[in-house]
Amino acid sequence: MAADARLRTVDEQLEIVLAGLGSIDPIELTLLDAQGLLLAENVSTEVPLPGFDNSAMDGYAVRAVDTRDATPEHPVVLPVVGDVAAGATSRSGMGPGLTMRIMTGAPIPAGADGVIPLEDTDRGVAKVAIRRPVQSGECVRRAGEDLPAGAPALGAGAALGPQQLALLAAIGRDRVIVRPRPRVLVISTGSELIDVGHKPSFGEVTDSNSYLVTAAARDAGADARRIGIVPDDHSKLLDALESQLLRADVLVTTGGVSMGAFDIVKQALSELGTVEFTRIAMQPGKPQGFGHLGDRVPIFCLPGNPVSALVSFEAFVRPAIRKLLGKRNLQRATVQAVALERVDSPAGIRQYRRGVLHREATGGYSVSLVGGAGSHLIASMASSNCLVVIDEEVTEVVAGSRVTVIPLLLANR
Ligand code: AMP
Ligand code: MG
Description:
Elements: H1 10-19, E1 27-30, E2 43-44, E3 54-55, E4 59-62, E5 76-84, E6 99-102, E7 114-117, E8 127-130, E9 140-141, E10 152-154, H2 162-170, E11 175-178, E12 183-189, E13 193-194, E14 205-206, H3 209-219, E15 223-230, H4 234-244, E16 250-254, H5 264-272, E17 275-279, E18 282-283, E19 287-293, E20 297-302, H6 306-325, E21 335-339, E22 343-344, E23 350-359, E24 365-369, H7 378-382, E25 386-390, E26 396-397, E27 402-407
Parallel strand pairs: 5-6, 12-15, 12-16, 13-14, 16-20, 18-23, 21-24
Antiparallel strand pairs: 1-11, 2-10, 3-9, 4-6, 4-7, 5-8, 17-19, 19-20, 21-27, 22-26, 23-24, 23-25, 25-27
Helix pairs in contact: 1-6, 3-6, 4-5
The structure holds adenosine monophosphate (AMP) and magnesium ion.
């Protein structure tokens, strides 16, 4: 139960956000540009894999029957009538009682039905002594044994990791239709803000949120861009948003959403009537705006304190980006960790605290808190590697008990 009946829960707000997302038209990308994305077509192969019968070993191609009587003491000696290397473009052939030296991956000559590995021979050049019988089919990779021609290779919805990209390349696809990365544009609002690289005068604050949110959006899989700073000015904000609308699948602003007289984002966008400003039963991140601009471009208006912006991003924007990517699992993985200190939390509020997650020698996790409850603390946010989640109904976590932790893993992009 929320302490304040007017507060919406995090889960309720997330449901509204997710229901308010459309889908982005699939696009065609080259293989490496498609890495990490979900396939938006069913792909079948025109060619068989492997494309032709070929040798699994370096050795000698033989007719199995010719080697039937071979033993280490009495090897079968056969004349070597040629070499087949990988890359041979015409099929060679050999008659009964003969062999050809063959490399791994080279086409099996017509007339041969097995390969004796080099190590089971005397490695002869003009003739070769074979020290054991070869089974028919031995060391032969059959055409189509991996995937026959015409077979489905990958289905729509498949995630394209290195293995899947390898398969697409192997069957000759250089481009595929995928769910694209949502284009996320990030704007910081606040008349106190200046761009990084300028020395702040008294009262000025260097914009860090746009870096935080743009990086977090990229980390979530978006094609995110930092648009920059807009002052607390009604028409400048609307102009900035309007000029970006055609380029965006998602807009994110930070700042200007609380109750203050200068909270221009809230005022300006409330008037449009398509963005709703609500108070959520969470801490930090209580004031939130979400809605649509233009041709239903979703817009998130996050609070301006950097920690609030991060927590709000994690709670609402990240799952939205993942949904637009087509991912089934929208939430980050959590772990249970032993709290190393006591934490109090207001009833009815989901509290997110920054923490440092430790892996214990015994295999479990423990977590300590950093930064207190202040959501302006950027340095302590930078020293954290996780969020500790204290659920709505929990008012006290005693030291030594278990808490839910969201590790904020560094993505390799
Ligand atoms: P607001 O949500 O606009 O009331 O801002 C709350 C606090 O966050 C204020 O102290 C702002 O100066 C600070 N803040 C807002 N936007 C940013 C930003 N882009 N970078 C760093 N701090 C910010
Ligand atoms: Mg502000």
